[in-house]
């Protein structure tokens, strides 16, 4: 378990790509692995409290906040709802993004009965505003590295908004990427995409002091 920051009330883990953040019973997930790891480490009766207060998509890696008490889960969830948590992502996209920085505003909805999202018009049922800011970190002839700050947290938001502008995330075949990315896998569900939650800033749920945690990029980047 790659723990980036920890105390008695919460921890921040560096989620690997290809792993579900959470899932049904008997389905492998980071949440289940973390609970088993804590159980083994503390060697005490009863299951340890593990509450994921947000999620990362299966092919996405990076910093994930986990509460270890019910109170910490409630306080951190309130921070997310109030948009007090600063989440930064590094993403490698296809093509050259010419503007050095900018803001993308769209309407996104989950596609009915499918595990994907899409852009829609303002009056379409289920549509919700999706907003992010981006800054170009580096350009190549055929790809661009962006840092992204989310203002909203919609399903597959970064992936959909980037792909809709002709800049699919590398390796993200679900949204049109033509590029291979990450380690080779036999199960396509375990494939990585070039999207990494590299920084999260929040207030400690007990002391309210500001905390910033950085998650190093996987070696295959």
TrEMBL record:
Presence of the UniProt keyword Isomerase in the record: yes
What Enzyme Commission number does this protein have? Answer: 5.4.99.24
Molecular function GO labels: 23S rRNA pseudouridine(955/2504/2580) synthase activity; RNA binding
The lineage's top-level taxon is: Bacteria
> Keyword Isomerase, does the record have it?
yes
Which key words are in the record? Isomerase
Q: Which Pfam families match?
A: PseudoU_synth_2
Domain called Pseudouridine synthase RsuA/RluA-like: residue spans: 10-163
* InterPro entries for this protein: PsdUridine_synth_cat_dom_sf (IPR020103), PsdUridine_synth_RluA-like_CS (IPR006224), PsdUridine_synth_RsuA/RluA (IPR006145), RluA_PseudoU_synthase (IPR050188)
One of the protein's GO biological processes: enzyme-directed rRNA pseudouridine synthesis
Q: Which family does it belong to?
A: Belongs to the pseudouridine synthase RluA family.
UniProt-recorded name of the protein: Ribosomal large subunit pseudouridine synthase C
Organism of this sequence? Roseimaritima ulvae
């Amino acid at each position: 378990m790659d723990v980036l920051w920890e105390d008695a009330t919460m921890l921040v883990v560096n989620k690997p790509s290809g792993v579900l953040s959470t899932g049904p019973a008997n389905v492998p997930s980071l949440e289940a692995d973390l609970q088993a790891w804590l159980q083994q480490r503390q060697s005490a009766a009863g299951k340890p409290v593990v509450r994921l207060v947000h999620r990362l998509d299966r092919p996405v890696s990076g910093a994930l906040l986990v509460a270890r008490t019910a109170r910490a889960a409630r306080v951190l969830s309130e921070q997310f709802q109030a948009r007090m948590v600063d989440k930064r992502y590094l993403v490698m996209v296809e093509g050259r993004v010419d503007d050095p920085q900018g803001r993308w505003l769209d309407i996104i909805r989950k596609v009915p009965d499918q595990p994907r999202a899409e852009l829609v018009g303002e009056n379409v049922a289920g549509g919700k505003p999706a907003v992010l800011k981006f800054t170009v970190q580096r350009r190549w002839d055929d790809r661009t590295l962006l840092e992204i700050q989310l203002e909203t947290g919609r399903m597959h938001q970064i992936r959909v908004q980037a792909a809709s502008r002709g800049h699919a995330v590398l390796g993200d075949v679900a949204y049109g990427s033509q590029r291979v990315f990450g380690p080779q896998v036999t199960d396509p569900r375990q494939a990585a995409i070039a999207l990494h939650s590299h920084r999260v800033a929040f207030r400690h749920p007990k002391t309210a002091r500001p905390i910033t945690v950085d998650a190093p990029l996987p070696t295959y980047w």
